[in-house]
Amino acid sequence: MNNPTNTTQPTLEISPGVAMPHIGLGTWPLLGEEATDSIARGITNGYRHIDTAHSYGNEEAIGAGLNRSGIDRSELWVTSKLSLPGHSRTGAVDSYDQALDRLGLDYLDLFLIHWPNPGHDGYLECAGGLQDLVDAGRLRAWGVSNFKPAHLDKLLAAGLRPGVNQVQVDPLHQQADQLEHHRKLSLPTAAYSPLGRAGDFLADPAITAPAAAHGKTPAQVVLRWHLDSGRAAVPKSASDERQRENLDVFDFTLEAAELAAINALDTGAGPRLDSDEYGH
After folding, report:
1. Among 147, 115, 144, which Cα is nearest to 131's?
2. What is the pLDDT of residues 184-197, one digit of tens each?
3. Which of 7, 143, 194, 243 could form a disulfide with 164 if both were Cys (CB 3.0 to 4.6 A apart)?
C-alpha cells in the first residue's frame, strides 16, 4: 500500500511512520446521496481525512464519494470502525474485509474498535486480530474509540498498543482524567463531536474574544484549541462554507491565556454515553 500524503494541513503521528491529518471530516449521521455528495465536496474543499463507521450505515455511500472525488487513494486517509460482531480475533479480520468491500477500497489507514463492550469481554481478541492485519501489511494502523483508562490498561497489559483513542471532547466535556491518562500512556487523542452538539459555548466570551482577536469564527477557535492541546479533531459538516471554515485553522495559534480561558469552561461532565454500559 502507498503512504498517503497531505499538503493542506499538519499531521499527528499515531504509530512509527504513520501520521494522520489533524482535521478529519466526520460523516455521522449522513446517509445515501447526501453522504456521497458531502464527501466528494469535502475532498474538493481540501479534506484528506475521512471518518466513518460500520454503525453509521454509510460506508457504501462514503466509498462512492471517495470515488467521485477523483483524488488518488494515496492522497487520502480513511478511518472506519467495527462493531460488536468484530469482537474476536477472526471477527476483527472479517469485519475489516467487509468494511473494505462496502467502501470499495483495498486497505484502510485506520480501523477502530468503536466501543469496548466490556460485558462481552472480546476487545482483547479483537485488538489481536487488528494487530495481525497491521503485521500482515493489510492495515496501516488500528486504534480504539470510547475506551476508558481501565480498558486501555487491559490492552497494554496484554501487549496490545492502539495508535489512538477517539473520544468525545469539547470545551464543556473535556474529560480531564481520561486525557491525562492518555498523556501518561503517550497515546494520541482524536476528538469526536469537537464542536459539541448544541454549540451553546460558542457564544461564551472565552471563545468569542479570541475569535475577534484572531479574525476567526468561534468554531475555528474551538478547533484551534483542540489542535493547540495536541489533539486531532473530527467535525462533521455537509455545507461547503463550514467545511472550508473548519479547515482554515492552521494560520494562527491561541495564546496561553486564551487556552486557559477555554479550559476553564469545563463542566466536569462525562461523555454522553458511558462505555461500560453502552456499546454495539
Report:
1. 144
2. 999 999 999 999 97
3. 143
